[in-house]
Specification:
The chain is of the alpha+beta class. The protein is built from 14 helices and 48 strands. The strands form 13 sheets. A six-stranded mixed β-sheet has the order 37-41-42-40-39-38, sandwiched between helices.
Length: 793
C-alpha cells in the first residue's frame, strides 16, 4: 500500500521532456545519462541527492548515488564498482521499459538484479532511494533494497539483505567485511569467508528470531526490531534530527560500522569543509581484538598488526620494525620483510648479524610454532636469534612463544602485559638475493667455462652491438622520455599526458604556492583514485631543486601524519608531483573557519603533527627539517587526520648531521629567531613553529589578529604568556566549554607551547619529547622566564 501511495504522489509531478525536467523530476522512458562529465546526474526534488556518474579514473566512471549539496559528494550507493564504465557509456531507461548501463559500443555493463522489466518511470527520491516503478505505481526495484556499504534514514533491511564494505577508502569494489540479518534473526558482522573458513563472525546481535528487520529511522537511531515492531537491540547511541543534518551509517573498509552526521549548513558556501562527524559508538569498538582467526590474517594483513589510534580510536594496520607495506596505497594489504631472512645454513648461522626490536603490548596470537617456559626476556631473545625460523618471539610471564612468517592476527592490546621481540637484520641494506658459499663457487666455475668458450665470445659481441644500439637510441630520445629519479622509493612515474587527462586539463585548482599550483585529479592506476597534482612553475632554478628534494624526501617517508607521495612526472620541461588527495583541505580552513572545531579533535591534530615532525627529525634515514610548519601546510584527510605537506623547502640532513646553514625559509609569524641572526639552523626551528601552531590550536585563532579589539591580545603568544604568568589560562578558552572542562590539559599544552618558542634553541625540547609531553607520558618542566619575549609576526 505504501508503494502504491508513493507511486501516486510521484506520478502527480509534471513530466516535461526537457533536460532540466529530467534532472529534477520523474524520469520517463527514453531518459538517459552519458558518462562524459556533462548532464551526468539526475537530482532528487530537493537537490540533496544525485544519481549518475562519478568520475573514478582517467576515462572511468562509477554509477552511483551521492550527497549533492556537500563538498565531497559522499557516495552512498554504487552499481558497477568492479566494471567501471568507460567514457561515453550510457545509463538508459529504454523505450521498452528496461534499465541498462551500456558501454559506448552498446555492450551491457550492468542492469538491476534480479532482472526488472515493464518499468513505467524512475525517480531519485529525497530519501536517497532510487526507484524503478511500473504503470500501477508499484516499486519494481529500489536501491534501498540493494545496499552497498551505506544505509540512510528511513531505510529498512529485511532478513537476507547483505551490506558489503568497499575495498578501500576510494576503491568501491567489494572488500573483506560484510554484515547481514540472517535467517536466524541475528545481525552478524563477518570477514569474507575464504576456502578454509565457512565463516568469520566478529560481532553478533544475539537477537535470534523470525521476521527481524534492521531500521534506520528519521531520528538517527539504528536498531533491530521484531516482526511485531518490538525493538530488540539498539545499535547507535543518541538521536540526531534529519532536519538540520545529513546522516549515514556505513560499514567501512576497515570492518567497523559507524554512524555519521554532517550539518546541512556546512557546505561549500560556508567557506570551510567540516567533514562528517561520528555520533555513536562504533561496532565493534575494537576490531583489533574481535577477529581471532585460526586460519587467516586477522583484522589486518599478514605480518602487520592492528592498533587503535587517535581520539576516535580508529583501527590502523602498521608494519613492525624491519617490515614495509606490500601495497603503499592500502595499509590493510599486509607487510613484507625489507631485509634478507636469516640463513639456515649451519656453517654460517648469522646470529651476530641480527638484533631484536621491542613492541610492548603487541602480539600475533596464532603464529606459534614453539613454546618455552621458565624463561627470562634475555633467554627468549637469544633463543629467537639462534633460530633461523624465528621471525619474532612473544615474552610474557616467563613464557617465550616463537613465531614464524607469515605472522597473523597481529594486534596491540594494552591489557596484554607481554612484549613482542622482533628479529631484524642489523644492516637492512643486505640484499635479499645473497646466496651461500656453494652457489658462489658454482658461479665461478660456470664463469670460467664460459670465458674459455667461443659461445661466450659470440654472446659478448652481440651484447656490445646491443649496447651501442641502446646508446644511440638513448641520445635520440633523451629529451622525450621520462628521467628515472629515485626509483628506490617505489613511487610511480607518470607521463605528462596521463596527468593532463587525470586533471581534465588542469581544471580544478586546489591551491597555489611559490613554486607551482596544485590541481585535483583522478587516476585509475592508483587505489585512492583521487589525487592532488602539483605542477611546478618552471624547470630551472629553485623549482628544479625543489622537485628533486620533494621526490627524495617524501618518496622515502612512511608515516600516518605525512602526506604520501604517489608518483611524479619528469618529462621534458614538465615537472609534476602526484600526492594522495586530502578531502578536508587545510588545517587553516578547519581551524579559522566559522564553526569552532572540537577541543578533542584539536588535541588529536596537535598530537598528530607532533608525531609527524618527530618522525621527520629522528626516524628517517636522512633526517628532515620541514622549515615551514604552519596551518596551511597541514592537510586533513577524510577522517580529519592531520598530515604534514609541502616538503619543497625541506632541508635534508645526513644521519650524522644536526645543523646546517641556509637562507631564510618559511613563513613570517612562524619563523624561529635564529633565521634572522645568521645562526646555524637545526630541527629546533620546526619546534619553534610547532609552538606557535600549538597556541593557535589551543585558542582556535591566528597568532596575529590586528582586529582582536584588545591590544594585549593582538599577538597571541604574548597574550598566552601573560595568562600563564597570571595563572589565568581559563581566559584563553573561556568560550570553549569542552576545553574549559579540561583545564589540566589546557595548562599542560600552554606550558609545552612556551617551551617550544624559547629564544634559545637549546632550551627547546625535541619533537620526540614534545610528543611524549602532549600524550602525558612525561612531566612538563616549568618554562624558563625569557630575558625578552620576542614574537615573530
Amino acid at each position: 500500500m505504501a508503494s502504491v501511495i508513493l507511486g501516486i504522489l510521484l506520478i502527480l509531478v509534471p513530466l516535461p521532456l526537457s533536460a532540466e525536467a529530467q534532472t529534477h523530476g520523474n524520469l520517463t522512458l527514453g531518459s538517459s545519462l552519458t558518462a562524459n562529465g556533462q548532464n551526468s546526474s539526475w537530482l532528487s526534488p530537493s537537490g540533496e541527492f544525485a544519481f549518475g556518474f562519478q568520475r573514478m579514473g582517467r576515462g572511468a566512471h562509477l554509477l552511483a548515488i551521492w550527497f549533492e549539496k556537500i563538498e565531497d559528494k559522499t557516495i552512498v550507493w554504487s552499481a558497477n564498482s568492479t566494471n567501471l564504465a568507460p567514457e561515453g557509456s550510457e545509463i538508459q531507461l529504454t523505450a521498452d521499459g528496461r534499465f541498462v548501463l551500456a558501454d559506448p559500443n552498446g555492450g551491457e555493463l550492468w542492469s538491476p538484479s534480479p532482472t526488472v522489466a515493464g518499468i513505467a518511470y524512475a525517480a531519485m527520491l529525497d530519501t536517497g532511494n532510487f526507484v524503478l516503478v511500473d504503470q500501477n505505481h508499484v516499486n519494481l526495484w529500489e536501491t534501498f533494497s540493494q545496499p552497498t556499504d551505506t544505509i540512510l534514514p528511513t531505510q529498512q533491511l529485511d532478513q537476507g539483505t547483505k551490506v558489503n564494505a568497499r575495498y578501500s577508502e576510494m576503491n568501491y569494489s567489494a572488500g573483506r567485511f560484510n554484515f547481514m540479518v540472517g535467517n536466524d534473526g541475528n545481525l552478524s558482522f563477518y570477514a569474507t569467508p575464504d576456502r578454509w573458513n565457512a565463516s568469520n563472525i566478529y560481532w553478533v546481535s544475539d537477537t535470534v528470531g523470525s521476521g527481524v528487520q534492521l531500521i534506520f529511522n528519521q531520528s538517527g537511531q539504528v536498531y533491530l526490531t521484531a516482526k511485531n515492531g518490538t525493538v530488540l537491540k539498539t545499535l547507535t547511541s543518541g538521536t540526531v534530527s534529519t532536519n538540520g543534518f545529513y546522516q549515514r551509517a556505513i560499514l567501512e573498509y576497515d570492518g567497523v560500522f559507524r554512524q555519521y552526521v554532517h550539518p546541512k549548513m556546512a557546505n561549500s558556501s560556508s567557506g570551510r569543509p567540516t567533514g562528517w562527524l561520528t555520533v555513536s559508538i562504533p561496532i565493534p569498538p575494537n576490531i583489533c581484538l574481535s577477529i581471532p582467526q585460526n586460519i587467516g590474517s586477522g583484522a589486518c594483513g599478514f605480518n602487520s598488526y592492528c592498533t587503535l589510534e587517535g581520539q576516535d580510536q580508529r583501527p590502523r594496520c602498521l608494519c613492525p620494525p624491519g617490515y614495509t607495506p606490500l601495497d603503499s596505497t592500502n595499509e590493510m594489504s599486509g607487510c613484507r620483510q625489507d631485509f634478507a631472512p636469516q640463513s639456515c645454513d649451519g656453517s654460517r648461522p648469522e646470529t651476530d648479524q641480527f638484533t631484536i626490536n621491542e613492541l610492548p603490548n603487541t602480539n600475533w596470537p596464532e603464529s606459534d610454532y614453539e613454546r618455552r617456559t621458565n624463561q627470562t626476556e634475555e633467554s627468549c631473545k637469544e633463543a629467537c636469534l639462534a633460530d633461523c625460523f624465528c621471525a619474532l618471539a612473544i615474552f610474557s610471564g616467563g613464557t617465550c612463544w616463537k613465531k614464524k612468517i607469515p605472522l597473523s592476527n597481529g594486534r596491540v592490546d594494552l591489557n596484554d602485559v607481554g612484549k613482542a621481540l622482533i628479529k631484524v637484520r642489523k644492516d637492512n641494506s643486505t640484499s635479499k638475493s645473497r646466496g651461500n658459499g656453494n652457489k658462489n663457487s658454482t658461479l665461478i666455475i660456470i664463469g670460467s667455462v664460459l670465458l674459455s668458450s667461443s659461445v661466450f665470445v659470440s654472446l659478448l659481441l652481440l651484447l656490445i652491438i646491443y649496447l651501442i644500439y641502446r646508446s644511440f637510441r638513448s641520445r635520440v630520445s633523451k629529451l622525450s622520455r621520462p628521467v628515472q629519479i629515485n626509483q628506490a622509493t617505489g613511487t610511480q612515474t607518470f607521463t605528462y599526458q596521463e596527468l593532463q587527462e587525470a586533471t581534465d586539463g588542469f581544471k580544478e585548482e586546489l591551491g597555489r604556492g611559490a613554486f607551482g599550483t596544485v590541481y585535483k585529479g583522478v587516476l585509475r592506476s592508483v587505489d585512492t583514485n583521487l589525487v592532488a597534482v602539483k605542477v611546478l612553475a618552471t624547470r630551472t632554478g629553485e623549482s628544479e631543486k625543489e622537485f628533486e628534494r620533494e621526490v627524495s624526501a617524501i618518496g622515502k617517508t612512511n608515516h600516518m601524519n605525512l602526506v604520501r607521495l604517489l608518483g611524479f612526472c619528469n618529462e621534458g620541461q614538465h615537472r609534476l608531483l602526484v600526492y594522495e588527495f586530502m578531502s578536508n583541505g587545510t588545517l587553516a580552513d578547519f581551524l579559522f573557519g566559522i564553526l569552532r572545531p572540537s577541543w578533542y579533535k584539536r588535541i588529536e591534530i596537535a598530537c598528530g603533527v607532533a608525531q609527524g615532525l618527530s618522525y621527520l627529525h629522528d626516524d628517517c634515514t636522512r633526517h628532515i627539517i620541514h622549515c615551514d610548519i604552519k596551518p596551511q601546510n597541514i592537510l586533513l584527510d577524510g577522517s580529519l587526520t592531520a598530515k604534514l605537506s609541502d616538503f619543497g623547502i625541506a632541508k635534508l640532513l645526513m644521519a650524522n648531521q644536526t645543523r646546517t646553514i641556509t637562507g631564510v625559509r618559511g613563513t613570517i609569524g612562524y619563523l624561529a629567531p635564529e633565521w634572522f641572526r645568521n645562526m646555524p639552523i637545526s630541527s629546533k626551528v620546526d619546534v619553534y613553529s610547532f609552538g606557535i601552531l600549538l597556541v593557535e590550536l589551543i585558542c582556535c585563532r591566528k597568532n596575529y589578529e590586528p582586529g582582536a579589539g584588545i591590544e594585549a591580545q593582538i599577538v597571541l603568544v604574548d597574550w598566552v604568556y601573560d595568562c600563564y604568568l597570571n595563572e589565568n589560562e581559563l581566559s584563553l578558552v573561556k568560550s570553549d566549554e569542552e576545553a574549559s572542562n579540561d583545564m589540566r590539559r589546557v595548562k599542560r599544552f600552554v606550558m609545552i607551547a612556551l617551551l617550544c618558542i624559547q629564544e634559545d634553541p637549546a632550551l627547546r625540547p625535541t619533537m620526540k619529547k614534545v610528543t611524549q609531553m602532549l600524550e602525558g607520558a612525561v612531566e612538563v618542566p616549568v618554562p624558563p622566564v625569557p630575558s625578552s619575549f620576542i614574537s615573530s609576526i
